[in-house]
Design a protein that fits this description.
By secondary structure, this protein is α/β, with parallel strands linked by helices. It has two domains: 315 residues, Divalent-metal-dependent TIM barrel enzymes (TIM Barrel); 60 residues, no CATH class. Helix content is 46%, strand content 10%. It has 15 helices and ten strands. Strands 8-6-4-3-2-1-10-9 form an eight-stranded parallel β-sheet. A two-stranded antiparallel ribbon has the order 5-7. Helix 2 packs parallel to helix 4. The longest helix is centred in the last third of the chain and has 26 residues. The two termini are 15 Å apart.
Length: 386
């Protein structure tokens, strides 16, 4: 089994992932700060292809334009030295106290206008760095008390902002697409656009819907008790999977951002199998953090582990799909038959034929699909006992 990452794997990490210092709501940082150049060189050393950033990760918030320019130029030089690409960019619209009531959906009009301005300025940076995807995570776009906002107005302001920003990108001629990142809660009690399904429906209302897709995250769908694999598959079906955040999570917990493949092994097997077999060509972005127990060496162990687990699951998925016993079990389960149209396009003639058709319900009721044997083959391959 070859677990060596290659550029075609398109593995990427955010500056905030390996740069996370282990701070949580109940305790201060436990690790020293890694400078941006250290992060980039460390990622390159373990075979990573791309890196992403929030504006405030890369350039000091509130600094002079000359300082911000110097920080950006240093980042560009290190990208050139390491061979890394800038795979995605996003805006920090959640940390500063100004965003306590939201950013694009704040009740205060000036806060909303400032938030849009902040995104526009970072879109300029993203374009300069060649980032093809711009993610919108609405962590503060929500409520604790339903009395504080009319959700319909909030969604109108969300739409207005994305329409405006889409117009800005088109006007500037930037080759950038937007990706919405759903999440049900935390830090807000209830966040707008909480799941993949909510976000897909919202995108259809946008003026520039063709340039807006999804950046689903393992932890966020899992927090809701939903199947991340199913959400990703639907996003693919609607041609809206623009980017993906890989990590791990236990159902019903706070956003844990565990190492990819450390918890939901079976779910991840199907996710990796889907990504590898579907022709998905976007970044495979690890948005996760090392445990708070770790020192700096543990951070790099965590990053290598994300990559190693993905590649191992990809290898197991290939073995599963070439196993003759799996092919036999899938034939019994009629997996391929689901791709055959049930009735085709409507016509009066076909409707008449369907209404005249006789079905033997006893025969259909006696069908057995053999899913127990098929699923055991999944487990056998994951455990290495196939």
């Amino acid at each position: 089994m070859d677990l060596t990452p290659r550029p075609e794997n398109r593995f990427s990490f955010g500056l905030w992932t390996v740069g996370n210092r282990g701070r949580d709501p109940f305790g201060e940082a436990v690790r020293p700060k890694l400078e941006t150049t250290e992060i980039l060189k460390g990622l390159a050393d373990i075979g990573v292809w791309g890196v992403s950033f929030h504006d405030d990760d890369l350039m000091t918030f509130g600094a002079t334009e000359s300082q911000r320019r110097a920080e950006l130029d240093e980042f560009k030089r290190t990208l050139d030295e390491t061979g890394l690409v800038c795979s995605m960019a996003t805006t920090n619209l959640f940390y500063h106290p100004i965003f306590k009531d939201g950013a694009l959906t704040s009740n205060d009009r000036d806060v909303r206008r400032y938030a849009i301005q902040k995104v526009m300025r970072n879109l300029d940076v993203a374009a300069e760095l060649g980032a093809p995807i711009y993610v919108f995570w609405g962590g503060r776009e929500g409520v604790e008390t339903a009395a504080s906002k009319d959700t319909r107005d909030a969604l109108s302001r969300y739409k207005e902002a994305l329409d405006y920003l889409g117009g800005y990108v088109k006007d500037k001629g930037y080759d950038i697409r937007f990706a919405l990142e759903p999440k049900p809660n935390e830090p807000r009690g209830d966040i707008f656009l909480p799941t993949v399904g909510h976000a897909l429906a919202f995108i259809e209302t946008l003026e520039h819907s063709e340039m807006v897709g999804l950046n689903p995250e393992v932890a966020h769908e899992t927090m809701s008790g939903l199947s991340f694999y199913q959400g990703v598959a639907q996003a693919m079906w609607q041609e809206k999977l623009f980017h993906i955040d890989l990590n791990d999570q236990r159902i019903g917990r706070f956003d844990q951002d565990f190492r990819f493949g450390s918890e939901g092994i079976k779910d991840h097997f199907f996710l990796v199998r889907l990504l590898e077999s579907s022709g998905y060509s976007g970044a495979k972005h690890f948005d996760a953090h090392a445990y708070r127990t770790e020192d700096v060496q543990g951070v790099w162990d965590f990053a290598r582990g994300c990559i190693r687990n993905y590649l191992a699951l990809a290898d197991k998925a290939r073995a599963f799909d070439t196993d003759p016993r799996v092919a036999e079990a899938m034939a019994r389960a009629k997996v391929a038959e689901l791709a055959v149209p049930s009735v085709g396009a409507y016509s009066a003639s076909s409707a008449g034929q369907l209404l005249a058709e006789n079905f033997d319900l006893d025969v259909l009721a006696d069908l057995s699909y053999g899913n127990e044997a098929l699923d055991q083959l999944v487990v056998d391959h994951i455990l290495g006992i196939a």
